Amino acid sequence: MTQVARPAPGKPRRLDTFTLASEPGNERLALARVAGTVKGLGLSEARLERLKTAVAEATMNAIEHGNGNRAEIPVEVEVTQDGDAITVAISDQGGEAYDASAGSEEPDLLKKLDGGQTPRGWGLFLIRNMVDAMQVTTDGQRHTIWLTMRTGGAAHDEHV
Q: Which of 28, 29, 45, 64 has a CA 20 to 30 Å removed from the CA of 38?
């Protein structure tokens, strides 16, 4: 069995970086490329599927909300590894106009069915519950969501 060399903690290693046109459907390209990049780095199949779901959802948000489905504005994706942490950073140009973390109320299915909440708004909730850590940053126009998945993972993830 071949071992993958892992960088020392504190020294992230860039595994891949790419851009996608902000067109609906390109989230599938992002999840496939990220999955191919991290395959063999120690994520169980269940945790890889969770990461793929989070990457697809975050990329859809970047395309739709951040870049307004404007194909000429790319979504940027970077995959890094730092010890047992794999991080996927997905950036758009939505800036402060699209602050995904501001005022986001926890989705409530009954409220949504009764019209008390919009039927939309499951994205960040889903993402947050798919990965080990999620962070959202805004630097001028650049809006980035950071998704971190540890290769060790929790035992319960194997049964999801």
A: 64
